[in-house]
């Protein structure tokens, strides 16, 4: 059956249709532009508290690093399909290592103001082709207590953007349709039992 399927979609009558899509290398086509933000949104925060590198919410740091070295990364925003804004909103930790998400909405608004003032890409779609990593307990509601997270709701500036988050409870106000749910970060040494 696989041969028939392959032959059917590769036949001349289907040239330029599904066969091309099925055979394309998506990594060769997908392009992500990573905004170069002021260090106060990411690098300085990490320098202030390196515990963020091993925290369960470190996905925002490692996704940033991954994208910068990935074949999908483009330096030309005009050829980008997606735009990533590297804001480390969970890296503000208490002495006990718990995240303090209270500054996160202000930080996110500030970063969006920066990119919308300096580049045209946010403004042309109101962020619909942008994605953010929001690995808080209740994602882009930016609060660790559910009741307060529900009251706060998702930051309105992020309503059109794709949210990549570790929170995945269905039918919850803090999980908008179209969000991508990923597992919390676990340091490789913990995964290997070292």
From TrEMBL:
**Molecular-function annotations in GO:** glycosyltransferase activity
Q: Which residues form the Exostosin GT47 domain?
A: 29-191
Native organism taxonomy: Eukaryota, Viridiplantae, Streptophyta, Embryophyta, Tracheophyta
Protein's name according to its UniProt entry: Beta-1,4-xylosyltransferase IRX10L
User: GO CC annotations?
Assistant: Golgi membrane
Q: Could you tell me which species this protein originates from?
A: Platanthera zijinensis
BP-aspect Gene Ontology terms: glucuronoxylan biosynthetic process; plant-type secondary cell wall biogenesis
Q: What is its main location?
A: Golgi
Name the family: Belongs to the glycosyltransferase 47 family.
A Pfam family this protein belongs to? Exostosin_GT47
Q: Which UniProt keywords apply?
A: Glycosyltransferase, Golgi apparatus, Signal-anchor, Transferase, Transmembrane
The membrane-topology field of this record reads: Single-pass type II membrane protein
